């Protein structure tokens, strides 16, 4: 079970895939990933507080006269205590600086595989618990000499 858990968590991130689309076909509020040119990334980076802004992930917020609006999540330090607050920043990307836009879609095959694997693991765990099988607990040990491992063994 300990070996399966990291694989299961890794596969949960694979339930969604990004597929390139035409910018005109993106619906408002859709989850998008936008690749922008290097000059646009230099302009955008200080606005959202990252060092490399060539790949923006957020929600499509529509179009304006200058290009496409993408709402990008950011974090800001608030107050003297330094607590972090999650905010969203709308970034206008000129059409000439937009290299590619992708939408996030649900991958049904991967999702079905993950749900099926989780159901099998949960079912096997439930069966083992209901049967009352022993777990991985060790029985109480004897004296300290019982736990020694012989390094050299002499036989005659």
Explain what the structure shows.
The protein is an alpha+beta fold and 156 residues long. The protein has a domain at 19-105: Roll (SH3 type barrels), CATH 2.30.30. It has helices spanning 4-12, 38-48, 108-131, and strands at residues 16-20, 31-36, 55-63, 67-78, 83-94, 98-106. The protein has a 6-stranded antiparallel sheet with strand order 1-6-2-3-4-5. The longest helix is centred in the C-terminal third of the chain and has 24 residues, at 108-131.
CATH-scheme architecture of the domain at 19-105: Roll
β-strand percent reads 25-35%
Q: What is the CA-atom radius of gyration, in angstroms?
A: 27 Å
Percentage of helical residues?
25-40%
Largest sheet entry: 6 strands, antiparallel
Distance separating the two termini: 44 Å
Query: What class do helices, strands and sheet pairing give?
Result: alpha+beta
Mean pLDDT: 78
Lateral strand order in the biggest sheet? 1-6-2-3-4-5
Order of helices and strands: HEEHEEEEH
CATH fold-type name of the domain at 19-105 = SH3 type barrels
Assembly state (oligomeric): single chain
**Helix segment tally:** 3
Unreliably modeled segments: none
CATH class of the domain at 19-105: Mainly Beta
Q: What sort of overall outline do the alpha carbons produce when their principal axes are compared?
A: elongated
Number of separate strands: 6
Task: Give the helix/strand layout.
Blueprint: H1 4-12, E1 16-20, E2 31-36, H2 38-48, E3 55-63, E4 67-78, E5 83-94, E6 98-106, H3 108-131
Antiparallel strand pairs: 1-6, 2-3, 2-6, 3-4, 4-5
Describe the structure concisely.
The protein has helices at residues 4-12, 38-48, 108-131, and strands spanning 16-20, 31-36, 55-63, 67-78, 83-94, 98-106. It has 156 residues and is an alpha+beta fold.
């Amino acid at each position: 079970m300990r070996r399966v858990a990291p694989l299961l968590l890794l596969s949960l991130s694979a339930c969604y895939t990004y597929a390139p689309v035409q910018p005109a076909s993106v619906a408002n509020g859709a989850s998008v990933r936008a690749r922008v040119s290097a000059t646009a990334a230099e302009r955008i980076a200080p606005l959202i507080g990252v060092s490399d802004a060539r790949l923006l992930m957020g929600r499509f917020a529509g179009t304006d006269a200058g290009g496409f609006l993408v709402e990008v999540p950011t974090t800001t330090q608030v107050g003297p205590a330094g607590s972090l607050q999650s905010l969203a920043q709308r970034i206008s990307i000129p059409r000439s600086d937009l290299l590619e836009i992708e939408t996030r879609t649900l991958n049904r095959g991967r999702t079905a595989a993950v749900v099926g694997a989780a159901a099998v693991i949960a079912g096997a765990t439930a069966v083992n618990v209901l049967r009352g099988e022993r777990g991985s607990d060790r029985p109480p040990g004897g004296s300290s000499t019982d736990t020694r491992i012989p390094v050299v063994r002499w036989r005659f």
